[in-house]
Amino acid sequence: MTPSSLTLKIGPGDTAPDAGNLGATYDQVIATVPVRDVPYPWVQLVRPGGELVVTWHNPFAGAAIARLSVAADGRAAGNFVELADVACEDEPAPVIAEAENAVPWYRTTTPLDPDTVWSDPAALFALGVRLPRLRSVGQRTGPQRLPRADQAQKDMTPCPDGTEAESRRWVYDGTSCACAVRGPSGEIQVEQHGPRLLWREIEAAYKWWLDHDQPAFDSFGLSVTSFGQFAWLGHRCSGRIWRL
Prior knowledge:
The chain has helices at residues 19-22, 40-44, 94-100, 114-118, 121-130, 198-211; strands at residues 7-10, 26-31, 46-58, 62-70, 76-83, 106-109, 135-144, 156-158, 164-172, 177-182, 188-193, 220-225, 228-233, 241-243.
């Protein structure tokens, strides 16, 4: 942007101008509030050739900043350039509370260690891009004593009474949820509730990330159009594109 360019900043609590009244007025619009769905009226505020900087809420990795160039056809597209230090963690959903008090209708094991996934920011970003309608939250489920004195404790956290509590990583949507936790034998057990087998979707998305050479967050891009927003890997015409 040149020194004489016109910039609009949209922060938490700010109301963006009505693009219908102003038209494409700004050379740059910077929105710092994390959003799951980028409002298309923000694109309409930017002149062709200008830039829209948005903070997208990735449901697994948190907030990420994308710099989008606005084209004459009204499309904005560009790469993610930075992970933002903005808190936007999801709270446990009612579907999880209901599941904790119910017998899981489907129980299985998995070769995918949740500790491996949730310790890798690149993997989490890919999961959030491939599964944008899922949510993730960690939760301590309740006091349990360790079965052996030499039990690995990385999945456990101390309780005030000296017992231990399992730390579970839940994934969920509006109707289904799943969690994976390491059992006493070291086997990773999965409990699934609801009509969707969400942990299978986690496994498939993680395998996709591995099969595509474990791309980092800045290998992904974002497009915002009048008919929706899309993520892509590499470049927007690569064919590796999907709706968010």
